[in-house]
Amino acid sequence: MVNIKRIGVFTSGGDAPGMNACIRAVVRTALYEKLSVTGIYQGYQGMLDGNFTEMTSRSVSNIIQLGGTILKTARCLEFKTKEGRAKAYENVKAAGIDALVAIGGDGTFTGADFFSKEYDIPVICIPGTIDNDLYGSDFTLGYDTATNTVIEAIDKIRDTAASHERLFFIEVMGRDSGCIALNAGIAGGAEAILLPEKETAIDELIAHLSAADGRGKKSSSIVIVAEGDQNGGAYNVAKKVKEKFDYYDTKVSILGHLQRGGSPSSFDRVLASRLGFAAVKELLKGNNRMTVGVRGNEVVTTPLEEAINNKEYKLSSDMLELVQVLAI
Amino acid sequence: MVNIKRIGVFTSGGDAPGMNACIRAVVRTALYEKLSVTGIYQGYQGMLDGNFTEMTSRSVSNIIQLGGTILKTARCLEFKTKEGRAKAYENVKAAGIDALVAIGGDGTFTGADFFSKEYDIPVICIPGTIDNDLYGSDFTLGYDTATNTVIEAIDKIRDTAASHERLFFIEVMGRDSGCIALNAGIAGGAEAILLPEKETAIDELIAHLSAADGRGKKSSSIVIVAEGDQNGGAYNVAKKVKEKFDYYDTKVSILGHLQRGGSPSSFDRVLASRLGFAAVKELLKGNNRMTVGVRGNEVVTTPLEEAINNKEYKLSSDMLELVQVLAI
Amino acid sequence: MVNIKRIGVFTSGGDAPGMNACIRAVVRTALYEKLSVTGIYQGYQGMLDGNFTEMTSRSVSNIIQLGGTILKTARCLEFKTKEGRAKAYENVKAAGIDALVAIGGDGTFTGADFFSKEYDIPVICIPGTIDNDLYGSDFTLGYDTATNTVIEAIDKIRDTAASHERLFFIEVMGRDSGCIALNAGIAGGAEAILLPEKETAIDELIAHLSAADGRGKKSSSIVIVAEGDQNGGAYNVAKKVKEKFDYYDTKVSILGHLQRGGSPSSFDRVLASRLGFAAVKELLKGNNRMTVGVRGNEVVTTPLEEAINNKEYKLSSDMLELVQVLAI
Amino acid sequence: MVNIKRIGVFTSGGDAPGMNACIRAVVRTALYEKLSVTGIYQGYQGMLDGNFTEMTSRSVSNIIQLGGTILKTARCLEFKTKEGRAKAYENVKAAGIDALVAIGGDGTFTGADFFSKEYDIPVICIPGTIDNDLYGSDFTLGYDTATNTVIEAIDKIRDTAASHERLFFIEVMGRDSGCIALNAGIAGGAEAILLPEKETAIDELIAHLSAADGRGKKSSSIVIVAEGDQNGGAYNVAKKVKEKFDYYDTKVSILGHLQRGGSPSSFDRVLASRLGFAAVKELLKGNNRMTVGVRGNEVVTTPLEEAINNKEYKLSSDMLELVQVLAI
C-alpha cells in the first residue's frame, strides 16, 4: 500500500454541473487530511501535457455554485495508446502524485482502470455525467441539474404551445440513455416520450396523440425525443408525424448543450460534496480502483471493473407505465 | 363619439410574455370604470367564430405571472378579406361590444386599423411582441422576458463552452429585427453578433474570432446569430466558419420557441399593466386608432397609422460600437 | 375488501411544492382505472364541511408545474374529536367515496389512521412536507424544491456578502428537522450550520468563524440557522455572536414562507407522479393504511402505523462530518 | 485639460447587480482606447489604503453575469475629512491615475464631486444602486434585477398564501424610495403597497383588504411594505392590522439582503455595459464631473452637481392609480 502524500484530481469526458462542487470537496478533504493536491487540467490530455496546478483552499473558493469545470475537460485519443499512458505516467510521477481521483463517465473510468493497473497507482472514480447511465450509483453528478434545465424549457414551451394549439417536439440529450428524456418528460407533463431503449412506431405515436386530441387535450401536446431515439431525432420524428397527421402546426426545438451548463441544483452540489469527500477517504483507507456513489441516502463503493462492465438503466417499470397513464 | 358600455379584448399574432398581465389590466380597469368586458379567443379568428367569453375580475386572478395568453392567439387569413371582416363585425355587434383593445404586433395593428375604419368601431392597440420592433414605444411586451431567457441560455452554454474550448453559435429569434440578438449578445458577453440589419462577411467574423484567439481568449467564444441574419441562420454560419477556421470544435444551438414562453419579468408585467390601464383610459377619453407605449418613464400614445407606417429599430449606435469594444 | 368505485383525494397540513403534481397523478391514474375521483378541499376541514368537487382529467391539466395545492389545505382541530370525524364520515359516505388518498405530513397521517380504523375506510398516505422528516421514504414531496429555493437565496446573499466582508445569518425552515438546513448549508458552501438535532455552543461557533478568518476566508461567511435551533433562531444567534466577535458587520435574513412555494423541481414532480400513481395502485390491490415512498430508485410501501411511530432523520454521519471539512 | 493615460475605477456604497458588468465595460473600453486601468478596491477606503490592482482584459473575463462587485465596496468615514482625501489623492497620484470612474449612489457621487473639485481630477459617475432614486437616469444599475428578485419571492409566497387563505406582509428594500415596492407590487399583483413617499393609514388598508375580501378575493392577499414606510416596517404593519382585522392568519417575510445579489438581468447588463462605455468616452472628450444615464433608449449626461442636488422619484402618477384599480 502506497503512503499517499499528494493526490491528483481531474475531470474528463463531457462536463456536467456539480463537477466544480466535487473538485472543491476533493481538494478541501485532502487538505484537511494534510495531503497536497495537484489539479490536472483537461483530463488525460493534461496528464500527457503536464498541464498541472497546485490546489489550495482558495483555489476552490466560490466555485460550488458554478457550472462547468474549472479544471476543464477534453477528449484524448493518445491516452488510449500505451505510449500515451507512459508519457502521462512520467508527468504524474514527476509531479509527485501518489494517487488519483477521476471525475467523469464511462470512458474516464475505463482509462483510469487501465492506467491504475499498468502503473500501480491508486485511483478512485466519481460518476459525473448528465446521462445518469453509470452502474454503481442511483444518481450521477449533473443529471438532476440537467433534468431541471429541461423542464424549465418545457414549461416555457408549454406556455406558447398552449396559446397556439401546436404540437411540439423537444429533443433532449441522451444518446444511449433515456433517463433525462423519461424523467423530464414525466415532470414536464409530456404527451409522449421517445427513448433510445424502446422502439416507438410512428403510427402508435400518432394514434396516441389523436386519442388525446379526441379527449379535447389538443391544445398543448408536447413530445420529448431523446437524441438517441431510433427514429432519428426530433426533426425526423416531426417530419414523419406531419406526413400522416395534418391537424397541427408542429415546431421542433433542439435544446443542445445548454443542458450541460447552469448552476448545479442542491441535489447535485450535495451529491458532489459527499462523493468528493468519500473518494479521498477511500484512498486513505488504502482502497483502489473503486467508484463511489449513492444508494438511497448512503454512500457506497463499487469495484471499478464491475462499474465498467455493467449497465444500469434507471428506467423503473412504474415510470414507463405512468407515462401512458398520466397523459390521458 | 360612441358611448362605450362593453369592450372586447384579444391577443393576436405571436404570443409574448406579459400578454396575460395586460389582459388582466384591461379587464380590471374596465370593470373599475363600470364597463363590461368580452374576452375574444384566438384573435381575429375568434371574432369570425364568435368565440367569446365574459370576463370578470376572477377570470384574470392569478394570471399576471403566467406566460402565453389565456385568450389564445391564432393567425387568420380570412380576416384579411372584406367578407371575413363583415362576419367578424356581425359577431362583435351581436355581442354588444362597443370598442376593442388589441394586443399584438404589426399584423394585429394593420387588421385593427382596417376594421376600425370600415365599421367605425373604436380600437386601441397595445404593442405585444418579443421582437421589440414596433414604432411608438421604447419597449414592447415580452421583449424583456425573451432577452432574459436568451441570456440564461447563453450563461449555461458558456459554462460548457469554457470547459471545452469550443466555439458556439446560438440562434435567437428575430426575422427582421436584431433587437434580441444585439441586447442578449451584449448582455451575454458574446464575441460576435450577427444581425438582420447588417451584413456580416464570414471572413470578417473569422478575422475577429482569430484576433480574440490571439489574445488568449479562445476558451469561450460565443457567436449570437439572429434567425434573420443574411448568412442564413446559425447552422449555415457555423458551416461556413468551419470550412475556413479549423481550430475549434463548433456546436450549434437553436433556442426556438422557448424564447416565447416563461413567466414575464417584472419589467414586462409593469409595462403590461400600465399599457392595459392606459388603453382603457384612452377609449374612455374618446380616442380611437391609437397605440399606447412608453417613452422613458412615461406612457405615450401614437396614431395607429403612424405606428403602422414607420419602423423603429432600437439599435442605438453606441450599442453597435460597444459589441466590438467589449469583445476584446 | 371494499369494491372501490370512487376515491377521495386531499392535501392537508403545510403545503409543499409537488402536491399539485401528486393530485394530478392520483386523479389521472384513478380515471385510467375507471374510478371516479372526488377532490376534497382544505383537507379534513373540507370533509367536515362537505367541500367537495368532481375531478376530471381537465381539472388537473397544466398544474404539474404549479406550487401550492389547488385543493388547498387547512388545519382542523374539530377532526381531532370523535364528533368531528363522525360528521366527516357522513359527508364522505354521502358523496359515495369508498377510499382515500391523503397527501401531507405527520398530522395528516395520524388523522388518516384514526379515521380509517374508526370507519373502516381504506386510505393510502403520501408523504408531502418540505421538512423531509417522515419515516418510510428517502424523500418527501417538496423537500428538494425547498432546498433549491434556499440555495438560490444563499447564492444571492453570498454575492453581496463577498462584496462587503460581512457575516450573514440565514434562517431556514425546520422546527424539528435540520434536513433543509444541512443540505442547503452544504450546497450553499456555508461556513457553519446550526441544527435542531445538535446543540451548537456559541463559543464553538465563534472559534470556528475566527479560524476561517485566520485563514483569510473572512470575506464571505454565511451561517445557516434552522428555525428550531436551540439558540433560538437567527436573530438570537447573530446577537450572541456579535457580543463576543466584533470584527464583522452582521446581517440576518429570515427566508420564511417563500420556502414553501415555487414551481416544483423535476425531482419533486417525478416523485409526486410516481407516488400518486402508486397510491391508487395500492388501493386497487386491496391495501389499506399504508404509506408510499421511495427507497433508492424504487417505490416502497410502509404500514401507516409504523410510519407514524418512527422518526427518520436523514442526516447521514458523513454529511455532518463534511460540513466541518469543507468549510476550511 | 488633462491628457489621460490611466483611469481608476471603483465601486462604492451598497453593491448592486450589474456593477461587475459595468467594471468590465469601463476596463475594456479604456484598454480599447489604449488607456491603462487601475482597479481600486473597496471604494474610497481603497484609495486611502492604496489598495489597487492593475486591470487587464482577462481581469474582467467571465464576470458580466456575476452579482456583487469584484472590486468590493465599503463605507468610508475618513474620506469625508480633508485629511482623508489628501491621503487618498497621494495614493491616486502615486499610482499614475489621471481620471476616475465612480460607480455607486448618492454618497459616492458627493464624495466624487468633492474630490474632483479639490484636486482637479476628472471624474465621471455611474448610477449604481438598486433603489433607482438618482437624478439623471430613468434607471440605475441593479434596480431591474432587484425587482425581479422580489417578484420571484412574491410568486413563491403567493403559491402558499393561496393554498392557506393567508394574509402576507412582505418587506422589501427602500428606505427613502418606494420604487422597488411600487414596481414589484404591481408586477406581483399585490393587494396593497405601502411606500415611504405616501402615508397609508392602517384603517384605510384594512378597509381596502376587507373590500377585496367581500369580493371573494380573500384567498391570496399580499401587502408589500417598503422598509421606509411610515408605519415602521412589515412587522409593525402586520401587528396593527391584526389588532383590528381578525379574519386571517397573517405571516411576515423580510426579504433582506438577498435583494442585492443575484446574476444581473439582461436589462442591467446592457445598461451597465452602455454606461461603462459612455463614461470612458466622456473622459476622453475632456468632460468632468458628469453622470451618465439613460433616458428612453439614449445615453445622456448630467452635471454631477445637478444630479446630487435633485431628487427624481420614478413613481409615475398612472402607476399609483393603477395599484388601486388592479387590486379589485
TrEMBL record, chains A, B, C, D:
GO molecular function, one term: 6-phosphofructokinase activity
Any Pfam family: PFK
Pathway named in the protein's UniProt entry: Carbohydrate degradation; glycolysis; D-glyceraldehyde 3-phosphate and glycerone phosphate from D-glucose: step 3/4
Keywords: Allosteric enzyme, ATP-binding, Cytoplasm, Glycolysis, Kinase, Magnesium, Metal-binding, Nucleotide-binding, Transferase
Binding site for Mg(2+): 106
Catalytic residues, chain numbering: 131
Domain Phosphofructokinase residues, every copy: 6-281
Enzyme Commission numbers on file: 2.7.1.11
Annotated residues for binding of substrate: 129-131, 166, 173-175, 227, 251, 257-260
Reaction equations catalysed: beta-D-fructose 6-phosphate + ATP = beta-D-fructose 1,6-bisphosphate + ADP + H(+)
Subcellular location: Cytoplasm
InterPro entries per UniProt: ATP_PFK, ATP_PFK_prok-type, PFKA_ATP_prok, Phosphofructokinase_CS, Phosphofructokinase_dom, PKF_sf
Activity regulation text: Allosterically activated by ADP and other diphosphonucleosides, and allosterically inhibited by phosphoenolpyruvate.
Residues that hold ADP according to the record: 24-28, 158, 189-191, 215, 218-220
Origin: domain of life: Bacteria
Binding site for ATP: 14, 75-76, 105-108
Record's function text: Catalyzes the phosphorylation of D-fructose 6-phosphate to fructose 1,6-bisphosphate by ATP, the first committing step of glycolysis.
Similarity comment: Belongs to the phosphofructokinase type A (PFKA) family. ATP-dependent PFK group I subfamily. Prokaryotic clade 'B1' sub-subfamily.
Name the UniProt record assigns to this protein: ATP-dependent 6-phosphofructokinase
Source organism per UniProt: Sphingobacterium kitahiroshimense
